[in-house]
Design a protein that fits this description.
This protein is of the alpha+beta class. The chain has a single domain (about 30-160), classed as Nuclear Transport Factor 2, Chain: A. Helices cover about 25% and strands about 20% of the residues. It contains three helices and four strands, in the order αααββββ. A four-stranded antiparallel beta sheet has the order 1-2-3-4, covered by helices on one side. The radius of gyration is 18 Å and the shape is globular.
Length: about 170
């Protein structure tokens, strides 16, 4: 039976189209609604943001004159922030600027990313909470998304939670 035409289905990245999420199912491509494909795209962006934030870049920064190297995989991930004190406003702002910068460079599906710190109810918490917001690039028009993110200060590990509408 031919697959129904669904021009409103959102196109996934080439990486996600190549992944076989269910290798035991030999039935081939299944029909997906636009809502399913949008949910899949949001989940893929969430996953890739988490990978990006949990990656550490090379300790030796490239020469600033090499503009293309400063936008290449050589600088993929975050610098090591273990020596920073996130209770210091300057260090906190430095982290937020770095987060926004790497998301702009390495997550092109997210337009105009913005990082907003979320207040913690526990003053002794060893976590930093913030929200990543932006427009998810897709046809026919972009859609606003937000991802609640937690930095576990003791381990340096980031957890990105999905968009509320996903």
């Amino acid at each position: 039976m031919p697959r129904p035409s669904n021009e409103s289905e959102v196109t996934q990245s080439i990486f996600d189209r190549l992944i076989d999420h269910d290798p035991r199912n030999n039935a081939g491509d299944e029909y997906r609604t636009r809502a399913q494909s949008v949910r899949d795209l949001k989940n893929a962006v969430r996953r890739d943001l988490e990978w990006l934030l949990n990656s550490r870049r090379v300790a030796i920064p490239p020469d600033e004159r090499l503009k293309e190297v400063n936008r290449s995989l050589y600088v993929y991930g975050l610098p090591d922030f273990t020596a920073l004190s996130l209770s210091d406003p300057r260090d906190h702002n430095k982290l937020m600027r770095n987060l926004q910068s790497i998301i702009q460079i390495f997550e092109p599906r997210l337009l105009n990313p913005h990082i907003a710190t979320m207040e913690s109810s526990d003053s002794h918490s060893r976590t930093l909470r913030f929200r990543i917001e932006g427009l998810l690039r897709m046809d026919p028009s972009p859609e606003h998304v937000s991802f609640d993110t937690v930095l576990e200060l003791t381990s340096g590990e980031y957890e990105v939670k999905g968009d509320a509408d996903a």
